């Protein structure tokens, strides 16, 4: 969330929504594989 290069609010909100959706997807992958939810960095390995 810190680095966001959107010029207008119309571009900011979709970028933030995409980042939140990606985080939730990675947490779900960890949940399904019975891993710690907070370890999203290694969820696809």
The helix/strand series, from N terminus to C terminus, equals: H
Rg is 13 Å
Q: Total helix count? A: 1
Based on secondary structure, the structural category is mainly alpha
Low-pLDDT residue intervals, each spanning 5 or more residues: none
Strand content: under 5%
Main sheet makeup: none
- Cα(first) to Cα(last) distance is 24 Å
Q: What is the residue-averaged pLDDT?
A: 81
Helix content: 40-55%
The rough form would be described as elongated
Q: State the total count of DSSP E strands.
A: 0
Summarize the structure.
This protein has 45 residues and is mostly helical.
Task: Describe the 3D structure.
- The protein has one helix at residues 9-32.
- It is elongated.
- It has one helix and no strands.
- The model has no long low-confidence stretch (mean pLDDT 81).
- It has 45 residues and is mainly α.
